[in-house]
Amino acid sequence: MPEWLKLMVESLPSLxxxxxxFTVPLTLLSFACGLSLGFVTALVRLYGPKPLADGFRFYxxxxxxxxxxxxxxxxxxxxxxxxxxxxxxxxxxxGFSLNVGAYTSEVIRAALLxxxxxxxxxxxxxxxxxxxxxxxxxxxxxxxxxxxxxxNTFISLIKDTSLAxxxxxPEIFQAAQRIASVTYEPLILxxxxxxxxxxxxxxxxxxxxxxxxxxxxxxHQAQETK
Amino acid sequence: MSLVNITGLHKHYGPNxxxxxxxxxxxxxxxxxxxGRSGSGKSTLLRTINGLESFDEGSITLAGQTIGSRDAKTxxxxxxxxxxxxxxxxxxxxxxxxxxxxxxxxxxxxxxxHVLREEAHALLAKVGLADKFDAWxxxxxxxxxxxxxxxxxxxxxxxxxxxxxxxxxxxPELVNEVLAVVRQLAQEGMTLIMVTHEMRFARDVSNHVxxxxxxxxxxxxxxxxxxxxxxxxxxxxxxxxxx
Lengths: 226, 243
Prior knowledge:
The complex is a heterodimer of chains A (226) and B (243). Chain A is mostly helical. Chain A has helices at residues 3-47, 50-64, 68-78, 88-114, 117-125, 130-160, 172-183, 186-215, 217-225. In chain A, helix 1 (3-47) runs antiparallel to helix 2. Chain A is built from 9 helices and no strands. Chain B is of the alpha/beta class. Chain B folds into 2 domains: 1-81 and 160-168 and 182-243, 3-Layer(aba) Sandwich (Rossmann fold), CATH 3.40.50; 88-157, no CATH class. Helix content of chain B is 38%, strand content 27%. Chain B has helices at residues 42-48, 72-79, 97-107, 113-126, 142-154, 172-187, 199-205, 223-228, 233-242, and strands at residues 2-13, 16-27, 31-36, 57-62, 65-67, 82-85, 160-164, 191-195, 208-213, 216-221. In chain B, strand 4 (57-62) and strand 5 form a beta hairpin. The radius of gyration of chain B is 18 Å and the shape is globular. The interface between A and B is medium-sized, with 26 and 34 residues.
């Protein structure tokens, strides 16, 4: 076995451990929180009272207009100066969730607006309430539109979690740095790291296709018969 | 006894005064057709009856209940009494035909699945689409989609059915299959209020025709009088242009 492959195989358990114990949970938790935040943000901006909607618009403007790395530094290294101290992992979850929330809120807002007004009118006309119309008719149709761009955000997020290394979270990239610094083999270690991220995001892409198929059920059926 | 009672209805769209004091009474079993040029306010009037359009002044009552309340719950209860069929069908594309029809009774009234399916099948048979229960809306022709939309509106057993230019988006050869369903409903005693450009159909089926002009009811009466002896020059022009 060549030397480089041996190093890759030997370091794989540490990298995979870092990935499964830190990268994956960090990604899932941040995406879940971020998506919820994005959904609330989109709903308030579309249907909420003006002052509240303006507040959420300010949030989106602030997050989208500043670098993620700077936001993470502010939360982890900056806020303790104001007496607010987070452990590394919670700081990372907060930073990533705020970020995901801002971006997904725009995706969800666009997807909700993409459902024709006639769908609301039809739902109202058969006696559905706003909440019933939203849940039964608008959201399922908006979801189909939202899945591809949301998957984009998700895949970006799993790669962005490597930034948590600078908050001392021992995720994949930090594990790779640690091994590279003692073996002096950055080319091999970072190549291997990149490949692991590639595998993770490929799994997500496959999941995206499944979701799209589910929400687009009626379209595929229709195409088959044409 | 009057089922729908509209008095002194006014509506503005910004600077446009689109309804300028409309009075209209519809009795149980009436088939009322609203005709007029585009922009005359006929569709707006129709849409106020189930609260899809608000209005600024006047009142609408349906079976004694007042419409126009800002209270969402009252409005929702009211809409269960008023079916509506749209020009663009507006079927829910992510649900099958059967699911479209069962939506309202299932969600709003919480009926049991067995009863729901039976009623939905009966309604589909009534509109001549008994075999389409599991089809997707995309797989149907425009005429079939519109008939499903009628079945969906009927599923909540409304007291009155509003039809807003329901054949205007259809290819000409599909118009009759939809009109036949409406004609059958009229014969069964369903109260109907429709906006239509199908004048011959309006004359055959309705017992009251309302000609709207510039936001007001300009002339109204039994179709045989209204179409053959229009009194006002505006209606004379309209009739000679469309018949």
